[in-house]
């Protein structure tokens, strides 16, 4: 069991490798005289974080050779107008997949918007049809973060069969699907899903062979919550104000400095799970283009 130097699971490198694979496939598509895959992002309002996520999605789409469009609307767009845009995107044969960046302004019903998206173009995997198909192990678009983590685990060669996987956090788009996917045939973990009402949280975490922290609290996972030799996947990303030149430092849901020496392997923040999420969106878009999930 490792004591001092855990293996760093390099999400940045794995994501770059997958992007190269996608890029090659797109180049091949173009060589055959076909149009490239087309991903659209719908952005409402000018929230800084949403804007930077969408810019990043646009940039990375272009880097692999996709066509990338952003439909931008002011904060006061009506729900009706937004739903009409979605109708338009659903019908546009030149759009393979699209996402509606969340959160939406309060006067818009996000659930209604998500349910309006054609599941065949729902590359975020947020539509109930895709969530239901995931639950039934049918072909579907997996949500980007859990999909990215599964890919990271596979590409890093982490043994999962029969292991105890503890997932911290039960959100609809990370914790809950993550727990489901880790219990599936092929991953074969015994899974415990922990949340804010879980009793004996420390003890449960300390019994994990694989600990996935998606609780949204900076440095929540401390050294005493980790079993020696565990694999730790940190989904959190938080900016904490400090006196440095930048004015902040970045941490995950795991107290990295204290926890890392105890692990067999761990994802850093930044550079672990983060880079995998957009890559998963690109993978879903390529699948949409190739009609791999839905055949028609
Ligand atoms: N807001 C934060 N993360 C996401 C995401 O993965 N997809 C969408 N549509 N909105 C988000």
Q: Could you give a short description of this structure?
A:
The chain is an alpha/beta fold.
If you had to describe this structure to a student in words, what would you say it looks like?
The protein is built from ten helices and eleven strands. With 296 residues, the protein is of the alpha/beta class. It has two domains: 33-118, Leucine Dehydrogenase, chain A, domain 1 (Rossmann fold, 3-Layer(aba) Sandwich), CATH 3.40.50; 143-274, NAD(P)-binding Rossmann-like Domain (Rossmann fold), CATH 3.40.50.720. The strands form three sheets. It has a six-stranded parallel beta sheet. It has a three-stranded parallel beta sheet with strand order 3-2-4. β2, α2 (48-63) and β3 form a beta-alpha-beta unit. α1 runs parallel beside α10, α2 crosses α10 (274-289) and α6 packs across α10 (274-289). 42% of the residues are buried. The mean pLDDT is 97. Guanine (GUN) is lined by residues 53, 99-102, 124, 144. Guanine (GUN) binds at residues 53, 99-102, 124, 144.
Could you outline the blueprint of secondary structure elements for this entry?
Layout: E1 7-8, H1 11-31, E2 38-44, H2 48-63, E3 67-73, H3 79-91, E4 97-100, H4 110-116, H5 128-135, H6 144-155, E5 164-168, H7 175-183, E6 190-194, H8 201-206, E7 210-213, E8 231-234, E9 238-241, E10 248-251, H9 256-259, E11 265-266, H10 274-289
Parallel strand pairs: 1-11, 2-3, 2-4, 5-6, 5-7, 7-8, 8-11
Antiparallel strand pairs: 9-10
Helix pairs in contact: 1-10, 2-10, 6-7, 6-10
The structure holds guanine.
Guanine binds at residues 53, 99-102, 124, 144.
């Amino acid at each position: 069991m490792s004591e001092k130097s855990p293996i760093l699971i390099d999400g940045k490198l794995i994501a770059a490798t997958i992007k190269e694979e996608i890029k090659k496939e797109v180049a091949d598509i173009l060589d055959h005289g076909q149009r490239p895959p087309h991903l659209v992002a719908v952005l409402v309002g000018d929230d800084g974080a949403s804007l930077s996520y969408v810019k990043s999605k646009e940039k990375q789409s272009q880097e692999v050779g996709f066509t990338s469009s952003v439909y931008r609307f002011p904060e006061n767009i009506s729900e009706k107008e937004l739903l009409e845009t979605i109708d338009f995107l659903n019908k546009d044969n030149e759009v393979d997949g699209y996402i509606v960046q969340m959160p939406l302004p309060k006067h818009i019903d996000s659930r209604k918007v998500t349910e309006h998206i054609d599941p065949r173009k729902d590359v975020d995997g947020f539509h109930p049809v895709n969530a239901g198909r995931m639950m039934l192990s049918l072909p579907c678009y997996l949500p980007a973060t859990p999909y990215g983590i599964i890919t990271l685990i596979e590409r890093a060669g982490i043994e999962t069969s029969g292991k105890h996987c503890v997932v911290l956090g039960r959100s609809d788009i990370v914790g809950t699907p993550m727990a489901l996917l880790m219990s599936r045939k092929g991953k074969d973990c015994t899974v415990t899903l922990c949340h804010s009402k879980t009793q004996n949280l420390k003890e449960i975490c300390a019994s994990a062979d694989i600990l996935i922290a998606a609780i949204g609290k900076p440095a929540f996972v401390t050294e005493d919550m980790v079993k020696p030799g565990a694999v730790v996947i940190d989904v959190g990303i938080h900016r904490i104000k400090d006196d440095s030149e930048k004015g902040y430092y970045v941490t995950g849901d795991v107290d990295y400095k204290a926890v890392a020496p105890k692990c067999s392997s761990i994802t850093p923040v930044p550079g672990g799970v983060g880079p995998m999420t957009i890559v998963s969106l690109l993978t879903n878009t390529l699948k949409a283009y190739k009609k791999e999930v839905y055949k028609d």
